[in-house]
Specification:
Mean pLDDT: 95
Keywords: Carboxypeptidase, Hydrolase, Metal-binding, Protease, Zinc
Distance between the termini: 54 Å
Number of strands: 10
CATH topology: Aminopeptidase
Helix content: 25-40%
Organism: Paraglaciecola polaris LMG 21857
CATH superfamily: Zn peptidases
InterPro entries: AstE_AspA_cat (IPR055438), Peptidase_M14 (IPR000834)
Cofactor: Zn(2+)
Family: Belongs to the peptidase M14 family.
Strand order of the largest sheet: 1-2-4-3-5-10-6-9
């Protein structure tokens, strides 16, 4: 038996029943405040932007309103850019990076773009520092029709209802040491299927769409972030988290096939950012700034293309 199956809940090799999922849920503890760390900043943006509640999550732990921040005057002639954070609530810089961009930089781009910013898609995950939602579902494998994740379903429904084409979608994430110490062992236990640990990359990288990689767009994001923090290098096999690097700091996934957030919007340009907050060479603030640099790098590239 490997360490992957050493988990406190369930029987190795047997998928969890609802009983084990409930046991897992009961072990989760609120560790920080969505209201005090996220909503208060969203509210501060009301004078300059539209702030709309697009949904609500009703859980035993509480009621979580879901918000999107957008430019006040949408113009059909401008490209629309979707920025999402906190799909995995434990990935702090994704949430705070989206907020930091909205608070400090979004006004610089609203003349050129319609901006849609959903900074925290999984607020319960943010409060409990968790990858999953209370039903032990990973929202970032749930951007599919008839999604079982209300976090994924509600943002998809909101974007669909807008009825507009999304030019670019930037989804902000982290890869952390807890991926190996907690979340992949939990995944092994939940599904009863062995999960290899991956080598956690030290540094920033992006995940493009294997069906639409947009290599120069990815490169622009990397070059922007490289001014703020270091870019992850490949392992001995030339890979990051088991995937072959296609260029410096970039790997590709089949976004739609995997039900990943960046794939649901059908955007022409997509990127999923990944920073490593546990690096001895980076600080929490540096990780936030890296997320901001990824967004501004993407927008600067799109502006230069005169889309």
């Amino acid at each position: 038996m490997t360490a992957q199956y050493t988990y406190s809940i369930g029987t190795p090799g047997t998928p969890w029943s609802e009983s084990e999922k409930q046991q897992w849920y009961e072990n989760q503890v609120i560790k920080r405040s969505y209201l005090n760390e996220v909503v208060v900043h969203i509210d501060s943006l009301r004078p300059e932007f539209n702030v709309e509640q697009y949904g609500t999550l009703e859980y035993n732990a509480g009621r979580y309103p879901l918000y999107v921040i957008s430019t006040k005057e949408f113009n059909a002639q401008k490209p629309t850019v979707l920025i999402t954070g906190g799909v995995h609530g434990y990935e702090t810089s994704g949430v705070q990076g989206a907020l930091r961009f909205a608070m400090q930089y979004a006004t610089d781009y609203q003349d050129d773009f319609n901006l849609l910013i959903a900074p925290c898609i999984s607020p319960w995950g943010y409060e409990t520092i968790n990858r999953w939602n209370p039903m032990a579902i990973d929202p970032n494998r749930s951007f599919v029709p008839q999604s079982l994740s209300p976090e994924a379903a509600q943002i998809m429904a909101y974007v669909s209802k807008l009825g507009m084409s999304i030019t670019a979608h930037i989804d902000l994430h982290e890869t952390t040491d807890t991926d190996n110490s907690e979340f992949r062992p939990a995944l092994s236990a939940r599904d009863g299927i062995f999960q290899d640990n991956w080598q956690i990359p030290d540094g920033f990288y992006t995940v493009g769409d294997a069906q639409n990689p947009q290599e120069t767009f990815q490169r622009a994001v990397i070059e922007s972030v490289e001014k703020v923090t270091h870019i992850a290098l490949p392992d001995e096999a030339g890979k990051l988290i088991g995937s072959t690097m296609t260029q410096h700091g970039v790997i590709n996934y089949a976004l739609k096939d995997l039900g990943l957030c960046a794939g649901f919007s059908n955007a022409s340009y997509t990127t999923t950012t990944e920073v490593y907050p546990d690096s001895v060479n980076a600080t929490p603030e540096e990780c936030i700034l890296a997320q901001v640099a990824a967004v501004t790098g993407a927008l600067n590239y799109l502006r230069e293309q005169k889309l």
